[in-house]
Amino acid sequence: MGFLGAAFTLVTVVAAASGQDLAGNLRSSIAHYRMGEIFLNQHNYQSAANEFRSALNGDLEPKWTVVWAHIRLGRIFDTTGQHERAVNEYRLAERTQDNTDGALEEVRTYLGESTPPRRLEYPRRRTALDFPVPAGAYRVSKDIAGPEVIEKHLPEYSEEARIAELEGKVFLTGVIDVNGRTRDMQVTGSLGLGLDEKALEAVQGWRFRPGTANGDPVPTFVTLAVEFVLPVKKTRWHLARVAFLPQEGVSRPTFLSAAYPAGAGVSKPALEEASLVVAIRRQATTTLSFEIDALGRPVNFQVEAASDSQWGAEASAFVREWKFTPGGRDGKAVSVPCMLTLVWGERKMDVEILEQLSATCCIKGE
Fold first, then answer.
1. Range with the largest mean pLDDT of 116-120, 150-154, 159-163
2. What is the C-alpha separation between 325 and 257, in angstroms, rounded?
3. Residue closest to 167 by CA, chosen among 271, 258, 245, 301
4. Which of 9, 46, 213, 320 is the most core-located residue (most Cβ within 10 A)?
C-alpha cells in the first residue's frame, strides 16, 4: 500500500473511531487530534505536531481538544529539545482553564519539569600550538619545508566504532624524523571508540620524505590527519563525533547496537528539507545530548544544535532505539551523559541523488 492509500485508510479509521466524517469535515478537531495521537505513538513528531495544530485550527469540538492539543505539542517540543516552544504551549494550555481529565494538573507538572536543559559541550580539541616543539625539531615555516607522505596505509576499524558507524578524522601531532618515520605522536583531535588507538598504530607504518632546511633533512613537528571511512554505507546518515561525559570514577558506556534508517533515512515530512540539502550540495547536521541510563537506554534528549530544527527530531527518532552497556561505578550501573553529532547527506553530491531521494522508501511516518 502506498503512502496515499495508507493515509486514506488512517483517516477513515480515525474518523470512524471519533464519530466524524473527516472527508466531509476537514476542520474536525477531534479527528485531527486522534490522528496526532497515532503519529505521536509512532514517534513521528512532525506529523503529530501538524495534526495537533490542525486540531487547534479546526472546529474546536469538543472543547477539551484545545487544552490537550497544546499539551501534546508541548511534549513534542520538550522531546525534541525545543524548550522555549514547549513552555509556550504549556502556558497556552494553562490559559484555557480547562481541567478535563486533569489537564491543568498535568500542565503544572510539565512546567515544573520543563527547566532549561544543562548545556553540554564537547571536550576542547587541542592543536599543535598547545604543545612545545620537542628539542631538536622544527615547525614548518617559510624556512622549513614540510615532510611529504610517500607510503600510507588505511587504518583498521575498532569493533565498537564499526557498530556505531563512526566516520571522521583523528588528528595526531608529533615528529617526522630525518628517516621519514613518525615518533612521539599524540592525539590532538579525538574520534574515540578505539579509533584514536587505531590511528596511532596506522601512522607507525607510514613513510615520509622528511622535512628540510636549506635542502638538508630535519625533524619536523607536524599534525597528521588519519581518516576513517566505512567502505559500504546503506544509509545517508553517519556518526561524525561522540563523547561520553562520565563523572570521575565512572566507566563510560559502550555501543551494543546502532541501527540507522535505510535508504533516504528520513520521514516523509522531512523529504522537502532533505531534497533542499541535496540540491544545494550540502550536508545536514545535528548534535544531540542525552543520558544513557542504568539499563543502557538513551533518555532525556536535547537538541544542542542543528542545521534545521527538522534534523534534531529525525535523528532523535532512531537514536532512541540504540543500545549500550551502561556506565558503572563500583560494580553498579549508573547514568552517564553523552553527546553525539550526526550528519545526513552524501560524501559526494551527485546530480542523480535528488531524483533517487524522491523515489526512496522512508522510515516511520511515510
1. 159-163
2. 10
3. 258
4. 46
pLDDT higher than 50, residue 280: yes
If pLDDT is split at 50, 70 and 90, which confidence band does 303 have?
Answer: confident
Q: Residue 38: CB partners within 8 Å, gap ≥ 6?
A: 10, 14
- Domains in the chain, CATH or no CATH each: 3-113 (1.25.40.10), 128-228 (3.30.2420.10), 237-359 (3.30.2420.10)
pLDDT of residue 113: 58
pLDDT in tens, 222-273: 999 999 998 876 668 889 999 998 888 999 999 999 999 887 788 877 777 7
> Can you give the pTM of this predicted structure?
0.62
Three-state helix/strand/coil letters over the chain: CCHHHHHHHHHHHHHHHHCCCCCCCCCCHHHHHHHHHHHHHCCCHHHHHHHHHHHHCCCCCCCHHHHHHHHHHHHHHHHCCCHHHHHHHHHHHHHCCCCHHHHHHHHHHHHHHCCCCCCCCCCCCCCHHHCCCCCCCEECCCCEECCEEEECCCCCCCHHHHHHCECEEEEEEEEECCCCCEEEEEEEECCCCCHHHHHHHHHCCCEEECCEECCEECCEEEEEEEEECCCCCCECEEEEEEEECCCCCCECCEEEECCCCCECCCCHHHHHHHHHHHHCCCCEEEEEEEEECCCCCEEEEEEEEECCHHHHHHHHHHHCCCEEECEEECCEEECEEEEEEEEECCCCCCCCHHHHHHHCCCCCCC
Over residues 125-138, the pLDDT tens digits come to 676 677 888 888 99
pLDDT band at 69 (very low <50, low <70, confident <90, very high): very high
188: alpha, beta or left? (left if phi > 0; alpha if psi -120 to 50)? alpha
Can you name the residues that pair with 228 across neighbouring β-strands? 168
